Amino acid sequence: MTDTATPETPRAARKAGRPARILRGLLRASAWTVAVLVLLMAIAFFGAPLPLGPLEDTASVIAMLVPWTTGLLLAFTAILAAAAVLARRRRRLATVAGIAGLAALGMIATPWAATARETDVNWSAYFAAAPAPQPDATDTYASIDGHDLKVDVYLPETAEPAPAVVYVHGGGWSGGSRSESAPWQQWLSDQGYAVFSIDYRLAPTPRWEDAVGDVKCALGWVRANASEYGADAGNVSIAGDSAGGHLSMMAAYTVGDPALAPSCAVDEAPVASVMSWFAPTDLASLETDSDMPDSARGYLTEFLGAGLAEEPSRYEAASPLTYARPGLPPTMIVQGGADRLVPLEQGEALAASLERAGVPVATLDLPWAHHGFTGQWGSWASQALRPAVVDFLAEHAH
Predict the structure, then answer these.
(1) Fewest CB within 10 A of the end CB: N or C in the chain?
(2) How many Å apart are CA 152 and CA 214, to the nearest integer?
């Protein structure tokens, strides 16, 4: 007796092939999702900002985050390339995947190529880990209205008194902390500077002048205690990013102004130099200049306690541009070419005023750099900034 195979029914064949069809469907859906996501990122990154209200700010935030996703974009590029090849029969998917893959490569390559034309940058540094920061000391430089204002100290290995740099953190005047830029403070210390990274009272405080007064208080404390930390009391510079850069300039440009006195009993003295990284300089025009007007308005209103229409004189008094005049300390102004929050015009206006007044000015406009780029240690803009900082401080803080 011979066995005969039972022919497979069409229903059984369809059932047997269902897992493969489900898998192919999931892969196609994943490819479409990645392609659409990449294209939306590319529109935000390369596209000109549009007056879309809150959506304008959202698109700008997406653009700001793109440089942080380079590793993810490289993975997306590989996925999209595979999808374009494997989906040849599905022409629409293959075309969209191919376009999205090129867009992903564009977001990776364009900032690199633009920066590499101006300075020496490399991919190994892009993915390198930031220095491991460890303050040598933490102290309290003042206690004001129940706030203990602290300072982290990073000391170089040198037997001679080191030039000092007081660092003021950013955060829209209402957030941030003295430790958020710790890798930069450690790096500055490694270059031979005694670095003092400070707290200040955050908005909303009773008066916007409080933050400026706290920075001046810290400067006086550093001078008074410099010998304890091996720093040179006669060679103190100040630096900051974003809101911290704004406060650094305000403190440096208003020495002796009774309306902006230190918030503690210290002597004031001019600083050796000031560095401002992606900081606003003209608060009255910031909302209009910014491609993130809702965010800018929110930060300004919380810091100054009123809108521009209500207190225009307050906005003028809180702007470093107002104080541009001869005799100010050498100033380094760093701006990102793609900064949607604090655009190039802010730095350019101050640089032009300082140059007319005969103040030494160093400007660094970094192509395709967004607001807060220093938070990404290996970013192309961060790589370009470090040698520029070394050169500026070597000229003005030694």
Answers:
(1) N
(2) 15
Of 175, 169, 179, nearest to 303 by C-alpha is 175
What's the rounded Cα separation, in Å, for the pair 354 and 349?
9
Domains and CATH numbers, the chain: 13-117 (no CATH), 127-396 (3.40.50.1820)
Name residue 339's beta-bridge partners.
none
Written as one string, the DSSP assignment of 337-356 is TT-SSS-HHHHHHHHHHHHH
Count of residues making up the chain: 398
Q: Which two tokens stand for residue 101?
A: 């893959």
Q: What is the pTM of this model?
A: 0.91
How many Cβ atoms sit within 10 Å of the Cβ of residue 329? 19
One pLDDT digit (tens) per residue for the chain, 398 residues = 455 555 556 665 555 556 656 766 677 788 889 999 999 999 999 987 766 666 778 888 899 999 999 999 999 989 888 887 876 667 888 889 889 999 999 999 999 999 999 999 999 999 999 988 999 999 999 999 989 999 999 999 998 999 999 999 999 999 999 999 999 999 999 999 999 999 999 999 889 999 999 999 999 999 999 999 999 999 999 999 999 999 999 999 999 999 999 999 999 999 999 999 999 999 999 999 999 999 999 999 999 999 999 999 999 999 999 999 999 999 999 999 999 999 999 999 999 999 999 999 999 999 999 999 999 999 999 999 999 999 999 999 97
Q: Maximum Cα–Cα distance for the chain, whole Å? A: 113
Name the nearest CA neighbour of 264 among 148, 143, 177.
143
Nearest by Cα to 174 from 201, 152, 212, 148: 201
| Pairing mode of beta strands 331-336, 361-366 | parallel
Side-chain-side CA neighbours of 18 within 13 Å: the count stands at: 6
- CA atoms in the 13 A half-sphere facing the CB of 266: 22
127 phi, psi to nearest 5 deg:
-100, 5
Distance CA 74, CA 93 (A): 19
Tell me how far apart the alpha carbons of residues 213 and 200 are, in angstroms, rounded to a whole number: 9
Phi, psi of 139 (to 5 degrees): -135, 170
Q: Are 221 and 267 in contact (CB under 8 A)?
A: no
